[in-house]
Amino acid sequence: MGFYILLGLSTLLLLWGIARAIRKGRYWQPAVFGFLLGPLVTLPGCVFIELWSAAGTDLMALTFSFLSGAIFGVLSANGKTMPDSFGKRYGFPLHFIWLAAPVFFVFMLLMAFGGWLSLQRLMPDFYLIGLFSGFALRERLRADKVSASWVSWSAFCFVLALPLCHAAYEILEEVNYARQRGHGFEYAGGFSDSDLKPYDPRIPGSIVARLNAPATFVIKGVDELPVLDGAQAAFPVYAAFAGACYSDLPPLGEREMARYDDRDQKKDILSFTNTIRGFERLVEGKVDIFFGARLSPEQMKLAEKQGKELTLTPIGREAFVFFVNEANPVNALTSEQIRRIYSGAVKHWNEVGGENHPVIAFQRPENSGSQTVMRYFMGKTPLTPPLRDRYVGGMGGVMERVSEYRNAPSALGYSFRFFLTGMGAHQAASSRVKMLAIDGISPTAENIASGKYPLVVNLYAVTVKDNPNPNVIPFVQWMTGEQGQELVEKTGYSRLR
What we know:
The protein has 497 residues and is α/β, with parallel strands linked by helices. It is 47% helix and 9% strand.
């Protein structure tokens, strides 16, 4: 509360200073207030929008930056803003360069330490675009406006183009970053979090789990090979199954090897689209076995609507874990504390034994495996709607946000243990997060196998009962046998028994 009182008083003082300078006819003071001190009001205002707005925070904050810049630009053009000789010597409005440069530098410096907004790097650009536009509009409406030649307008367009070009550059960088870390798979937002290529048994030198002896169940030929799809974290498991039992698994061509991420997944026997799309393909008859955790009510309704009767066969066990930034002093939470956090009842870490920081509780997309388990865990306690930048598509995205968000130990996320310790272990973000003990029990392999850890879930092989492929049922039965369980354990999950 004290922060917002201080913010209000600072704003009033700023506006009073501008009004007084205009009344006194002092040409430098309005410009200094608008161009240099205006960001001090804009910045905390954007933070306020980010923290307390439930939807559209990025767009609202950027819009606020633009409007704030426009307002201060208009205010700065009032009064006698420049010496009479300035416009004649340098032309309208070259002085933007001198006034805007310090603001841009300060903004970029603050954003470099950033984390306030998902698009925080664009905030200075939007402020400056509004500032230039507001100043120019007000100046051109003045009776004593300076004479503007084509040189002056060219200079104005050049200066205005600087933040526009910077914004375009940042957006392009973000897109390229997403493509680099997304690996091109059809996942939430169009990408996957992990490179699955090392787990493909058709890739030379892959790290997929392998049996110590030949498989006791082998499917020969390609005509009746069950088509596999599933969750991201399940891919290493069912890829190991295919590598062991599919003696004639169609190899990847040179082009598919070179462009593994861009190949047509839907034409592949060993495919990955994601939890949501993979299950849809199962009920559409395009996939024979889907691998994932608990199904959501919406997925069950979809199968019922399609007239499909499902069989869910447990093939392994996994821990559903919560994790925080490694700098967070909290090492354990109770189930009730987590429910209170995600229902919105607990908003600060000091309420659950931590420091006085707001809890930034990330969520996953609806019908994803971890979000479905999370809703089951919450029971009748409702999940509070997440802010848009706290709603992350992929499991790797959650880990990355928790490790870096606000550059402070404020974030909380959830996923499956295998993703943090297996697939996600190579990511730099994994070294900056730690898993929490739940109800006093840590998610160790021993506690998962014994059932002591309270949030143990099954990994399922989901099939449709009317599937005509004769290899589906014996293949699933083999997964639950000794060799299948050997691959489950070698991959990083826990055996059923």
